[in-house]
Amino acid sequence: MSAAAPGIRHVSADPRAASGESARVALLGTGTVGRAVLARLEALQRSPLSNRLSLVHVANSRVAASDRTGLGPTATASLLGVGDAASGASSTACASAGAAVASQPAARSTAAAPALVRRSTLDQLEAVLDGAATCIVIDATASEDVATRHARWLHQGVHVVTACKLGQGGPLARWQAIRDARVAAGTLYGDSATVGAGLPVLRALRELQAGGDRIHAIAGVLSGSLAWLFGQFDGLRPFSGFVREARAAGYTEPDPRDDLSGEDVRRKILILARAAGVPLDVDDVAVESLVPDELAHVPVADLDASLALLDTPLRTRFARAYRNGEKLRFIARLDTRTGRPRATVGLESLPADDPLAIGAGTDNRIAIWSDRYAEQPLVIQGPGAGAGVTAAALLDDALRIAQGNRVAG
Ligand SMILES: NC(=O)C1=CN([C@@H]2O[C@H](COP(=O)(O)OP(=O)(O)OC[C@H]3O[C@@H](n4cnc5c(N)ncnc54)[C@H](O)[C@@H]3O)[C@@H](O)[C@H]2O)C=CC1
Ligand SMILES: N[C@@H](CC=O)C(=O)O
């Protein structure tokens, strides 16, 4: 096919994807999001998409399971083949291994589970994926170690699908390495889950630009957990109690301070800015943290007992906004039209009828101004956190790659 539009590439050149053979999938992370991926993969086995993805490796930070029989062409085909009893058994075995990894507590012996190896190493993963089929690593971790390998895998011909924002939302050099690797190797990077937990924000940005549009500005609520927290917070009940609820519901990062400090939103606005053609670096985003210094230095194990440190400052902020008839919202803003584009992230007190103050639950609400949407922005709104939507976004990207369809990234 002719040259693809900028930011939108096609995998039809990958004969492995076009062959109809299952793509080999390695899942890293079996926490809130990873478990939902496993559940959705299992549900896919009962759908017409059952032969698209073949789970060959599952790992968390403690243990890993590989189904090496999935590496041979015959065994790979039989893993998830539709209507094949033997493949059904293999598929179940693989899903069970996934479930076993997901339920493996840190200290429990793995001796009773022969499919599991006690230590999960990324080198072991690379051995599993070293083959001729379409291979996809799904990153459902929050791990720097894993994010620093994205570019390497892309270079090696392995596609990457990620919920973790530390790859494209980290240092500019890492984002550039990912971009260069996928361009050089013709591999794909599925990043739909990284912003808006799969809302079509990155896709919209890329498709607008593919049509010649230029992005002028982006503003909005990019954190599902902070949207939920400031939607619930009434200034009467302690903010810390809502943080515990948001964490239990799976909306926050593994360490909720990554949300409260604005770091998670910093990563998201960096991903959006870079996708909009503005290659900002980490320090080009001014971030207001909600985490007091005393809380920032508390060890993770003691965090729960210290969350009350949030309560007084946020009650004060809430009371001031309430007196003015305003609402607190955690907003990210990017303006690409200034001489040196910069972004900001922080808590704002908005008029109650401000378009960015609207939304319920974990809703993200993102406004995009461009040549085409110069006066009235394009607005995308919907749930922006949660294991279910995130897992769906990850597997949508994986399926698009496996099917040789167009994916953004
Ligand atoms: N919870 C949500 O709504 C959303 C989460 N995300 C992202 O999804 C990712 C995962 O989040 P959660 O599931 O909540 O985290 P979690 O803490 O529940 O799970 C993380 C998993 O990664 C594993 N892990 C850590 N290092 C590893 C390594 N080197 N190799 C293999 N596995 C490793 C851990 O053992 C654990 O199983 C994060 O990057 C988060 O930002 C993205 C969009 C929405
Ligand atoms: N912790 C994140 C989860 C999705 O990225 C959020 O609150 O938005």
From TrEMBL:
UniProt key word DNA-binding: no
Residue ranges of every copy of the Aspartate/homoserine dehydrogenase NAD-binding domain listed in the record: 29-186
Enzyme class: oxidoreductase
Catalytic reaction equation(s): L-homoserine + NADP(+) = L-aspartate 4-semialdehyde + NADPH + H(+); L-homoserine + NAD(+) = L-aspartate 4-semialdehyde + NADH + H(+)
Functional pathway: Amino-acid biosynthesis; L-methionine biosynthesis via de novo pathway; L-homoserine from L-aspartate: step 3/3; Amino-acid biosynthesis; L-threonine biosynthesis; L-threonine from L-aspartate: step 3/5
Entry keywords, A to Z: Amino-acid biosynthesis, Methionine biosynthesis, NADP, Oxidoreductase, Threonine biosynthesis
UniProt entry tagged with the keyword Zinc-finger: no
Cofactor: a metal cation
Domain Homoserine dehydrogenase catalytic, first and last residues per copy: 200-398
EC id: 1.1.1.3
Pfam families reported in the protein's UniProt record: Homoserine_dh, NAD_binding_3
Disordered as annotated region, ranges: 1-20
Family, per entry: Belongs to the homoserine dehydrogenase family.
Name the record gives this protein: Homoserine dehydrogenase
Taxonomic lineage: Bacteria, Pseudomonadati, Pseudomonadota, Gammaproteobacteria, Lysobacterales
